[in-house]
Amino acid sequence: MLKLARLTADPKSEYYIPNDDQRDEVLEDRDEYTAENVFWVPKGARWELLQNNAKQPVIGKMIDDAMVVIEKENRQLKGVLPKIYASPNIDKRRLGELIDLVGGIVVGDKAARSKDVLGRVYEYFLAKFAAAEGKGGGEFYTPACVVKTLVRMIEPFKGRAYDPCCGSGSMFVQSERFVEAHGGRRGDIAIYGQESNATTWQLCKMNLAIRGIESDLGQQWADTFHNDLHPDMKINFILANPPFNISDWSGDRLREDKRWRYGVPPAGNANFAWVQHMVHHLAPSGVAGFVLANGSMSSNTGGEGEIRTALVKTDLVDCTVAMPGQLFYQTQIPVCLWFLARDRKDSKFRDRRGEVLFIDARKMGTMVDRVHRELTDDDIQTIADTYHAWRGEEGAGVYKDAAGFCKAAIIDEIKSHGFVLTPGRYVGAEAIEDDDEPFEEKMARLTATLEEQLAEADRLEKVIRENLKGLGYGE
After folding, report:
1. Do the Cβ atoms of 70 and 42 come closer than 8 Å?
2. Final residue belonging to a domain, choices 87, 115, 143
3. Residues 357 and 242 in one domain
4. 4, 88, 176, 305: which sits with the fewest CB atoms below 10 Å from its CB?
5. Do residues 214 and 352 both lie within one domain?
């Protein structure tokens, strides 16, 4: 916990400050916050001041002034925050009511409120907006369970992390949480990213700033393919959720690009342009985990099959995971996870060259509402543990193929499937437990059940016809 959070009037505490004025002085010392990488909000921009003036007609101007002060005190937010609330077309009465409404929200218990409360509230509203807006609102938001799966599998402990299409920054936030949860320090990961949408770039800057996460997202938003802001950067960990199957990426202008070492991606689909862009940025021992549409594992359109074959033959593909449907707010397209590794012969783990791990997680997850599914924490851990056991990591257990779930296949087997990387091709069917009922008895029982169901169907059909006749329909 932060020193600031532990200031106390208890004389026995090492954080004891006997004088209230001294305590207030420390609490208002900006350097105490920045030294701990905590987001600093000046007095004139604090929520209490705004909430106390929510009913005043000048509340819009007060919010705009608060935005200006916050940007001035937090350089990473310069030019990012909106200053539109004094506009005459915004109803100040409703604005004040909204402030009162948000001010009345109780976020968790006292312990929870001391841990990244602003960041968690921000993330909560991002998720709710994505859910409410559906296809239009979800483009910047990757479901938390998907991000957690990527992070737990590649374990970004220390080094450079990069997302070439960073959206609202969820990959970075989860990476920092992972490091802290495993005894590391915030800042052990250096954050680099890029985003082509101006509004989404601003969302990401705010998301990271309120958590005190330093990052380099470039001086402005920019198209990753046509204006790579980190052209020579080599990265230890890449995590990404590129937009699926985009056709308007102007790929015809990049036919000779140096990033296309494994084949020129089709101008009508950017999936393998994203893949090769990430490979281009991998450090010699770097690893990448990213989301793609399922079609990327089997498509042969526009030379995609040749690119996928080259990636396998050069021993870059580590693992693919088929994910369950209905995870995303903005699309019902089935998705998969790809994991690539530059150096697959690591002295810490067993030699995995010439082999790819396939995991079929399509049956996992639970429905959280009528149309959306989430992976549970146990699901995520099962997937990650399987991957780490296959890699031979210490303490991860012994890997074994599991019919219907996972299979480690050598390149010759993958070649026999035309270098298709769909896990279902390899894992086979899950073994069905034998109930020991003799075949003759089972058939007699099932036949009797079928006869009963057919008889019931006939009865219901007659009832329906009688009801229709009573309404003047039918014969």
Report:
1. yes
2. 115
3. yes
4. 88
5. yes
CATH number reported for the structural domain that contains residue 76 in this entry: 1.20.1260.30
pLDDT tens per residue, the chain (475 residues)? 345 544 455 555 544 445 555 555 556 777 777 676 677 888 888 988 999 999 999 999 999 999 999 988 887 788 888 898 999 999 999 999 988 887 876 655 544 444 455 555 555 565 565 555 444 444 456 888 999 999 999 999 889 999 999 988 888 888 888 787 777 777 788 999 999 988 888 888 888 887 778 889 998 999 999 999 999 999 999 999 998 899 999 999 999 999 999 999 999 999 999 999 999 999 999 999 999 999 999 999 999 999 999 999 999 999 999 999 988 766 677 899 999 999 887 646 678 899 999 999 999 999 988 878 999 999 999 999 999 999 988 888 899 999 999 999 999 999 999 999 999 999 987 655 556 677 887 888 889 899 999 999 999 888 888 888 877 776 6
Do residues 34 and 77 share a domain?
yes
Q: How many domains does the chain have?
A: 3
Query: Residues 8, 76: one domain?
Result: yes
Q: How is residue 434 written in tokens?
A: 């034998």
Phi and psi torsions of 191, nearest 5°? -95, 130
The answer as to whether 469 is a domain residue is yes
Which are the contacts of 448, defined by CB distance < 8 A and separation ≥ 6?
none
Q: Which domain holds residue 324?
A: 132-427
Domain-located, residue 125: no
CATH number of the structural domain spanning residue 350: 3.40.50.150
In a domain, 74, yes or no: yes
- Which is it for strands 366-367 and 373-374: parallel, antiparallel or unpaired? antiparallel
Calpha distance 111→328 (Å, rounded): 31
Integer CA distances (angstroms), 361 to 296, 318, 321, 324, 325, in order: 17, 16, 7, 6, 10
Q: Are residues 79 and 191 in the same domain?
A: no
In order, the DSSP letters of 1-44 are --TGGG-BS-TTSTTB-S-HHHHHHHHT-HHHHHHTTPPP--GG
- Residue 464 phi, psi dihedral angles, 5° rounding: -65, -45
Grouping H, G, I as helix, E, B as strand and the rest as coil, residue 53 is coil
Q: List the alpha helices (DSSP H) in 411-438.
A: 411-416, 424-427
Q: Among the residues of 104-169, which ranges form H helices?
A: 110-113, 117-133, 144-154
Helices 117-133, 198-209: inter-axial angle, 10-degree rounding: 150
Torsion sign, CA atoms 213, 216, 221, 225: negative
